[in-house]
Amino acid sequence: MSKREEKTIKSNCFLQKILERRSELFGELEPPVTKHSRKAAWQEIRNYGVSIGLISKERDASYVRDTTWQNFRGRTLAKLLELQSGDAAGPKKDLDQTDYLVLEILGKESPIVKRLLSPSVADSFWARESNNVDPQTLLDRVNDSTSQSSSAVSSHKKDKKERKIPAPIVVLNDFDKDMETLKRRKLELEVRKLELEVWEKENSLGVEHIELTQNVHPKPPFYIYEDDNSSVHGNTSYEDDDKDN
Asked: N or C end: fewer C-beta atoms under 10 angstroms in the chain?
């Protein structure tokens, strides 16, 4: 099993845990859900992420809430926008199991999901049978694969000396790199624009903000990163405990 496959399995297990606690993490603050129980729930999610090796133990619960989850969310929304607009750099990427889990967490009533998920895709997606991930089963696969790989490497070292393989030389095209960056930024800004439109519409109607816009403010958007070691702009404290997905 490749490192990429292992990370995908761990990511899906992590998102499945969030899905199981969705109401407590993102729902209304009403009994039995309290600010204290919500903090505790995010701490448990963080501890689980650390236990499976997806999150560094130096990261706290607020980082998991404001960065790790936001990165998963942003990745899926950006992919939906690419599929809708056709502005993706290179071939379009189909939705994968990670995206499905993110969409289930956001919920079919999410205004952002409604606007980005085309009716034909939405009908087939929400009508499909639930395909929940069994964390223990998947982690057992990862652990078995890791154990077998370690044994194979140890046996190989006994029979053959290690050879140093020179690092490949990668020639980057500056123009292509700049275009990729600009297109990615464009997608991020378009997702942010959709969030603000919903937030402003709610304000103009004088209605209470729904789950997904309670934490939306007219400020620069979160930037989407590939890994958990990246930083994002935004509040990462627990002072605003009513923050939702």
From this structure: N
Q: How far is CA 98 from CA 5, 36, 65, 77, 226, in A?
A: 12, 29, 17, 12, 14
Q: What pLDDT is stored for residue 215 in this prediction? A: 63
Q: What is the largest CA-CA distance in the chain?
A: 73
70: nearest Cα among 234, 204, 217, 201: 234
In a domain, 38, yes or no: yes
Tell me the whole-structure pTM to 2 decimals.
0.59
Low-confidence spans in the chain with pLDDT less than 50: 88, 133, 220-239
Structural domain that includes position 11 = 3-144
Cα(96)–Cα(21) distance, integer angstroms: 21
Q: How many domains does the chain have?
A: 2
- Identify whether 198 is part of a domain: yes
50: nearest Cα among 41, 59, 63, 40: 59
pLDDT of residue 136: 59
**CA 185, CA 163: separation in Å to the nearest integer?**
41
Cα(177)–Cα(5) distance, integer angstroms = 26
For 227-239, write each residue's pLDDT tens digit.
Answer: 444 433 344 444 4
Q: Are residues 105 and 182 in the same domain?
A: no
- Residue 194's φ and ψ, nearest 5 degrees, are -65, -40
Q: Give the pLDDT score at 110.
A: 86
Q: 128 with 213, same domain?
A: no
Asked if residue 79 is part of any domain, the answer here is yes
**Shared domain check, 178 and 139:** no
